[in-house]
Amino acid sequence: MSAVYQLPEPVEPEVEPTSAEWLARDEAALAGVLPRITDVVAVRGEGSWLWDADGRRYLDFGSGIAVTNTGHCHPTVVDAITAQAATLLHTSVVCHPTGMIRLAERLAALVPFMADAQVFFCNSGAEAVDGSLKLARKVTGKPGVIAFRRAFHGRTMAATSLTTAKGKYREGYEPLLPSVTIAPYGDLDGLDELMDVQAPGANVGALIVEPVLGEGGYVVPPVGWLAGLRERCDEHGILLIFDEVQTGVGRTGRPFAAETFGVTPDVILFAKGIASGLPLGGIIAPRAIMDRWPTGSHGSTFGGNPVSCAAALATLDVLEEEGCYDRARRLGRIAVERLGRLCSEGPGAGPVDVRGVGLMIGVELRDKAVAEAVQTRCLDDGLIVLLCGPGENVLRLIPPLTIADDEFEEGLDILVAALAGEA
Ligand SMILES: Cc1ncc(COP(=O)(O)O)c(C=O)c1O
Asked: In what order do the strands lie in the sheet with 144-148?
C-alpha cells in the first residue's frame, strides 16, 4: 500500500490589523456617545511613550487625561498588579481586604493636615463626587450644594448637576439634582451675593470645588480664594469638598493641592492618577465626619478592589522614590517660563496666556481653530496634547510625573514649533 503524503494547508501568518482597520471596527462596535480625542489606536505604552497599531511612536502629554502619572506600564506598578492578580482578585465587603487597609493608612499619612483621616473607596471620580454629596447630607442635614461655573465633576446624574464646563454635558439631561447653586469661580464677592439672595448657608450642606479648574480651562484661582471658601464654610456649617480627581496624586507638585494651596478642606476626593490607570477613586475625610456616615448607608461592590489598591500603593511608592513631586514643580516652572515668553512676542503670535501649578499647565490660545490646528500639528509630529476650556482653546499639558527632562524638552520643542507654525 502506498501512502499519499498530504502537504499541510499553508498557515497564513497572523497579521495585526492596521490603525485604519481598527478604526473601522471601532466605529461599528462601540457606542458613538463615547468621545475620542485622537485617532491614535494605542497598542502599547512604556514610560512617556505610546505606540499605535502602525508602529508610530507618540510622546504622551495627555497621560490618559491625568491618569498615568507614573507613565505607561511602570515596572513597579506592573509587578504589584501581577503579584496581586495571582494572589487575590476580589472579596468585596464580604471580607477585609488588606490592600484597602494599607492604602487608606498611606493616604491618611499624605494628608497630615487632616485630623484622623479615614478613607472610603469607590471606582471613579464621579462616584467619589456622588458619595461626597451623600456624606454631606448625612453630616449637615442640609440638601443644598454650591458648585462653581465651568467646573467638571463627572458624568453621573449628581455629578452632571454640578458640572458646567460645557453646555453639552447637561443638554437633554434635565431635570438634574435640585438645590444646586452655581457660583462664579475665583470670585468671593459673587459667591457672597449668591449666598445672600439664593443659597443661604442654612440651606447649604456642601460646597464642592476644583482647587485648579480642570476641564473648565486649567484656571488657577486667585490667591486667598480657597481660604475664603474655607472661612465661609466654617461660618455656615458647610462641608468644604475639594474635588482633587485631577489635581490630586502629585499633579500640582504635592500629593494633594490642598497642601499646595495651604487650605484644609473637610473632604478630599481622588481618582484618576491614584492607581496609574486601574479604576479606583475615593473620599478622604476626618474620622469625626466619617463617623456620622452610618455603616451600610453607602457602599460599593468593586471599590477598593485588591488589584487597584496594589497598583495604588505601588504608584505612591514610585512618586516618592523617583522624586516626582519635586519634578512636577520644577518642570512645571520651566514650561510656564518658556511658553510664557512666547505670549509677549507680538500680537497674534503664540499663546494668549500660560498658567499652571506643577505639571498641570494650560496654554490658552486665541480660539478653538488655532488650538485644534496646534494640536493636530503636534500629533503629526508625534506629541499628544489635549484641549480644554469652554471654548476648547486651551492646550493642557499633563505629562507623566515620571517624565525625563529630555523627553519633556522634546515635547516642548514640538509644541513651540507647532505654535510658531500656526502664528
Ligand atoms: C475634577 C474632576 N472630577 C471628577 C471627574 C470624573 O472622574 P471620572 O471620569 O473618573 O468619573 C473628572 C474627570 O475628568 C475630573 O476632572
From this structure: 117-122, 281-286, 267-270, 239-243, 204-209, 144-148, 180-183
Beta bridge partners of 119: 284
> If 0-12 CB within 10 Å is exposed, 13-18 middle and 19+ buried, where does residue 301 land?
exposed
Task: State the Cα–Cα distance between residues 316 and 109, nearest whole angstrom.
Answer: 11
Cα angle, residue 307 at apex, residues 303 and 312 outer, rounded to 5°: 80
Query: For residue 329, what is the enclosing H or E element?
Result: helix 324-343
pLDDT in tens, 309-363: 999 999 999 999 999 999 999 999 999 999 999 996 555 558 999 999 999 999 9
CA atoms within 13 A on the CB side of 292: 14
Say whether pTM exceeds 0.90.
Answer: yes
List pocket residues of ligand 1, CB cut-off 6 Å: 65, 124-126, 129, 152-154, 210, 214-215, 243, 245-246, 271
Domains present along the chain, CATH in parentheses: 19-66+323-422 (3.90.1150.10), 77-321 (3.40.640.10)
